[in-house]
């Protein structure tokens, strides 16, 4: 095993053994070391760089190395580019302090394949208290780590689904509470159209696996049914995160419906121009909705329920600002949405009335 004297080394007594087994315990220990399915090595602590002096069959099978490629080498040959320096430092400190170490470390097989190693190191001292060897056992926990990662991913997915559900339910709740309830038939129709607008946005998100969606695509989806040939769209390719898509889709639906019923799209020569650009410092989103051909509205014009819903979506759901101005030619709406904001799916929306 080694040229060093082992007269001062005595192994630990078995926790349970018969007289017969006790007589053969050294040989049985050697058999157990070799035949166990747990990879094990022993390094010589009295030789510089702690070379491996014993390695069992399971260790060779796990790592893919032959016996001659292992003996005389420090175990660091199992480390690679993605091995954590923190884990390595923990191992070194434990060896230096002559104490037991338990650490999970990313190691590499001879083939280059990675595996997660639950490493246990234990110093072996002689009768005089001097450290003689370092015993190491390994457990391949790669599969366990994979399952753990899948469970964590599933947990994050469930939380995300929960957040999205709360967000959509808050929007639907605002639709129900803010829609005109004076006429039951009109009330049902207005809710139905708004829910359909949300459903179209939901389908778009589902097609893209709930990733970001371009602003132009959202606008065109909601506006095109009302203004196929009388609307122009211009702006850079800005993509919105999934939680912003449905609130903004409902905003454009309401603006388009209002334009079709009372604004530029309700008159023969009216036109609609929609543009967008990043906010200050290249963050957030600024949207400009310009209707031309409607003239100045009468002084008695009321704030409709669609306007209330637009305000609720922009100010509460998207935590932005909206400005409406009437010029000589028609309505101008400016919407500003900040980039950094906290989720607002649980914020009340009815105060926007």
Describe this structure in words.
Residues 1-20 are annotated as: Disordered. Residues 25-74 form the PAS domain. It catalyses: ATP + protein L-histidine = ADP + protein N-phospho-L-histidine. It is an enzyme of class 2 (transferase). By secondary structure, the protein is of the alpha+beta class. The protein has 2 domains: 19-140, PAS domain (Beta-Lactamase, 2-Layer Sandwich); 157-352, Heat Shock Protein 90. The protein is 40% helix and 21% strand. It contains 10 helices and 12 strands. Strands 2-1-5-4-3 form a 5-stranded antiparallel sheet, sandwiched between helices. The protein has a 5-stranded mixed sheet with strand order 7-9-10-12-11, with helices on one face. A two-stranded antiparallel sheet has the order 6-8. Strand 1 and strand 2 (52-55) form a beta hairpin. Helix 6 runs antiparallel to helix 10, helix 8 (215-223) runs parallel beside helix 9 and helix 9 (242-261) runs antiparallel to helix 10. The model is unreliable at 342-353 (pLDDT under 50).
Task: Outline the fold blueprint.
Elements lengths: L18 H5 L1 H11 L4 E5 L7 E4 L1 H7 L3 H4 L14 H12 L4 E8 L5 E12 L5 E10 L1 H37 L5 H24 L5 E2 H9 L7 E4 L4 E2 L1 H20 L9 E7 L7 E8 L12 H13 L3 E6 L4 E7 L16
Parallel strand pairs: 7-9
Antiparallel strand pairs: 1-2, 1-5, 3-4, 4-5, 6-8, 9-10, 10-12, 11-12
GO molecular function: ATP binding; photoreceptor activity; protein histidine kinase activity
Catalytic activity: ATP + protein L-histidine = ADP + protein N-phospho-L-histidine
Enzyme class: transferase
């Amino acid at each position: 095993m080694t040229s060093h004297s082992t007269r001062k080394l005595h192994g630990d007594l078995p926790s349970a053994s018969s007289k017969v087994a006790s007589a053969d315990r050294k040989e049985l220990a050697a058999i157990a070391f070799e035949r166990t399915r747990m990879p094990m090595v022993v390094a010589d602590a009295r030789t510089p760089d702690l070379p491996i002096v014993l390695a069992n069959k399971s260790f060779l099978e796990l790592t893919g190395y032959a016996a001659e490629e292992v003996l005389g080498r420090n175990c660091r040959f199992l480390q690679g580019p993605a091995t954590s320096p923190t884990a390595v430092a923990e191992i070194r400190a434990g060896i230096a302090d002559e104490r037991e170490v338990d650490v999970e470390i990313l190691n590499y097989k001879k083939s280059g394949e990675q595996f997660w190693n639950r490493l246990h190191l234990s110093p072996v001292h002689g009768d005089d208290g001097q450290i003689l060897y370092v015993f190491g056992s390994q457990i391949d926990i790669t599969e366990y780590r994979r399952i753990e990662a899948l469970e964590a991913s599933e947990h994050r997915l469930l939380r995300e689904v929960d957040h999205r559900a709360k967000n959509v339910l808050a929007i639907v709740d605002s639709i129900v509470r803010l829609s005109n309830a004076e006429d039951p038939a009109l009330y049902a129709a207005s809710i139905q159209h708004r829910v359909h607008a949300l459903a179209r946005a939901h389908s778009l998100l589902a097609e893209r696996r709930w990733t970001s969606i371009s602003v132009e695509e959202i606008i065109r989806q909601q506006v095109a049914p009302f203004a196929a040939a009388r609307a122009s769209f211009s702006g850079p390719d800005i993509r919105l995160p999934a939680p912003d898509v449905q609130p903004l889709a409902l905003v454009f639906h309401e603006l388009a419906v209002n334009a079709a019923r009372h604004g530029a799209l309700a008159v023969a020569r009216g036109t609609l121009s929609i543009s967008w650009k990043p906010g200050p410092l290249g963050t957030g989103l600024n949207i400009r909705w310009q209707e031309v051909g409607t003239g100045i509205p009468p002084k008695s014009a009321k704030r409709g329920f669609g306007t209330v819903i637009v305000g609720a979506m922009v100010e509460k759901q998207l935590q932005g600002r909206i400005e409406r101005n009437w010029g000589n030619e028609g309505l101008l709406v400016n919407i500003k949405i900040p980039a950094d904001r906290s989720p607002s799916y649980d914020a009340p929306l009815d105060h926007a009335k």
